[in-house]
Write the C-alpha cells for this entry.
Amino acid sequence: MPPIHPLARAMLLVALAALAGCDDETTEAPTDAAPVDTGDASPDARPPEPDGQPMPDSGPADSDPADAEPIDGSPTDGGPPAEPFEVVVGERVGPVLLGMSYAEMVEALGAEPAGFGADGAVLLNVAAPPMQVVLASPRLDGPAPEAVVIAAQANGPAGFEGPVRPGITRAEVEAALGAPTLTVGAIDFHAAGAAVVYEGDVAAQVAIWPAYTVAQTAPEMQPPAGATGGERPVIDPAAIGQVDMHLHFGRPGQIPDSGARFTTEVLPPFLQAYRPGITGTTLDPFAPHLGIRAQTDRAGSDHAVLFAVYTQESAGYATNRQLEAWLTDPANVAPDGLPWAWGLASVDFYNGYIGEDGALDEALAGRRLAALEGYFEAHPTLFVGIKLAHAHQGVAFDDARYLGVYDVAARRDVPVYLHTGLTPFPGASNAPPFYDPAGLDGVIASYPGVRFVLGHTGQGDARSVENALRLAADYDNVFLEISALGRPLLVDDDGADIPEPEAGEDQLAGVLEAIRDRGLVDRTIFGTDGPQGPGAVPRYTALVVETMTALGYDAAEQAAVMGGNFARVFFPPADDR
C-alpha cells in the first residue's frame, strides 16, 4: 500500500486521540480492507499513479502536516439529545444537512464541534450522539463559516433513528436500500447515498453523502449538444500565466467497481466510508473549496485543462458531452477574460470499435470519429486537443486500426495528448506496447504536422522515460508533460522490477535535469494529473517549482514550463500550425 495521504496522516493522529474519548467503541474504523491489486507488473510495489480519476496522492516525502492542530471548539456533550437524530440516506444526520454551511451547522447543533483539518478538508466530532462531519473549507487547517458539509457519519446505535442506522442488521439495511453497489472489506456502499460499516452482520456506522447514479457503461458517443463558434485564438506565451494542463473531472457512478475498490483501499480505513463524498466533491470543477478550480486557484494556476476520457474498464469515463457542459458553463471564465478551463476531447475505443473478428468496424469508428471532430468545429475556442490513454483503453501504440484519430488531429490542427508510463488500475494494460512511447515512433513520423504531447514523460519505467526523452529530441512535433513524477521508478533500465522502489528518489528531479541537459526545456509542459484528493494539486505544483529552482532553472525557463510552452503548443500563430 502506498504512503498515507498527508491529509490522512494528520487526520489519523488527531482522530485516534479525539475518538478515544468517545464512550462507544464502535467509532473505530474498520481495519480489514482487502489488499490492493494494482495490475500486472509487480503490483505489490506500485503506488497510485497517473491518469485515473480520483486518486489519493501521497505528496512529496517531506510533506507532513503534523502541525495541523485540533480546531478550537467545544464538542457537543451532556448525554444523548432529547430527540434521537434521524439518519436520512443521501441527505442528513439529524440537523446536519449535506450542503449546509459550517455556520448553519453550528447553529443547528447548538454547539461548535471539535475537530481538525488539512488541505481544506475538515473532520469534526460530535460527542452525543456520536457522529462525524466532513467539510470542504476555504481554510486549509479548519472550518470557516462558509465551509460546506460534504459527508456525515452516525457512529454507534445510541441516539439515532431511521430505516438505515447503526445497530440494525445487514438484512434490514438491504430491505431499505437493496443490495450494495460495492463492498470493500467491511463496508457496503449504496449509491442512494450511504456507506454502512459492519461488525459481523450489524451496522456499526452509517456514513451519508450525496446519492449518485450508477452508469458504468459509457453511452454511445454523441456530437456536441450546441455550438459557441469563434476562432481559436493566438495566445501570447508571456501573457497566459500558469496553466495546469492535466486535470480529470468525473462522477463517482462512472467509475467501474474495480477502480472504485482500488481508490477506496488506498485510503486509510477511517476515511474509506467517506470516499464517494470526497471523490464527488474533488472531481467537480466548480465545487466550493475542494473542487478542481478551488485547488488550481490555491496552486496559483491561472488556467486549467480538463480531460474527457473513455477508460470505462479501468479508471472510469467522462464523456465529451459532459465536458462540453462544464466548458460552456458561465462560471468558466478567468480574470483575464479567457476561459478558465479548456478541454481535450476523447474517443471511445470500446463497445464494438473493433469487431469480434479483430477488424475495425469502419462504420462505427467513422461515426465516433465524426462525433469527436464535431467538438472542434462547434467549440474551437474551448476544445483544443485530443486525449488518448492507450494503457487504459487496451490499445497498443503501434496498432494501425486506431490511426483515424490522428487524421482528425491533422485535419483540425489540434495536439494529441497520450498517456505514457505505468498505471496501477485493474483493467489497464501494464505491458510496454501499451505504455512505452517507443511504440509511437512510426505514428509520429507518419504525422509530422500533428503535435504529440507525451503525458507523464513515460514515468515508472526507466526505459519508457528514456524513450520519451529521445522522441522529444528526435522530432520537432513531440513535447513532454511532467505530471505524476513525484514518486520513484518502479522498473529499471533492464526491465526488471526495482525491489524497494519506495527507497528511491522521486523521478521529477531526474527527468527535469535530463530535460535541461538535453535542451528540451522549450518542449516541456506542466500538469498535475489532479485532482486526486484534497491538496494534491497545490502540493505537486509546489514540488515542480521547488525542484526546478533547486536544479537551477531560471525565471524564463520556469515560466515556459509552467505556462508559456502550453500556449506555444496549443495556441500557436497560424503560420506555425
